[in-house]
Amino acid sequence: xxxxxxxxxxxxxxxxxxxxxxxxxxxxxxxxxxxxxxxxxxxxxxxxxxxxxxxxxxxxxxxxxxxxxxxxxxxxxxxxxxxxxxxxxxxxxxxxxxxxxxxxxxxxxxxxxxxxxxxxxxxxxxxxxxxxxxxxxxxxxxxxxxxxxxxxxxxxxxxxxxxxxxxxxxxxxxxxxxxxxxxxxxxxxxxxxxxxxxxxxxxxxxxxxxxxxxxxxxxxxxxxxxxxxxxxxxxxxxxxxxxxxxxxxxxxxxxxxxxxxxxxxxxxxxxxxxxxxxxxxxxxx
Length: 285
Description:
The chain is an alpha/beta fold. The protein is 28% helix and 12% strand.
């Protein structure tokens, strides 16, 4: 099997006994950080191991680098190896249907050079609705060695600051429109958005059932949003570099590769009061 964007519940179910398959349960609730681990302990897809968004998919917070900074790549690759992932494995990540931590793991695996990774289309809800195999048993894991190297598919805060007035580059913010506009901010200390950013709520990539829209629909939406800017000149951000990965995945599904992630995102941006903040302006989807 070779899946690199999304995989259907039917195709994953057929492959459950494939020894080259590794499944990660990435369920996470931002305001309830232990909810994902509790849900996993209660029931998960057979063979899945748990990926903690705050511990496995993020590094140490300093108060200046955002709420989900990238971990040290070597530490991340050691965790992958301990979880049974090597260069031969097909990885599948799943989350709640409208969750984004599975997309974060998808992006992070690509960050360290692993292309055979896909997100379960429709997530946990699609799997359970179909009555497919679940268990509360912990999987048997055969540790291995993951050999990779970090890629430059992301940018830091300095890059964003230096390109604020660059019309050839577009920053896309995946947060809810009311947060983008600065009307409310339930999580971070400052409301608003990076000046010049455009808004596309990550959930806009999904149908009502939590599955991704067609490649044609996604492409039309991003072509309109980017207004002539090349995908490789697009920087995706959100609150902390997680939900932005859903927009990155959607662009890949749409056949528009090359965009980069700003992992620090809004939570890093507002950690320095000298950085400019905009409100109620900027293009929206």
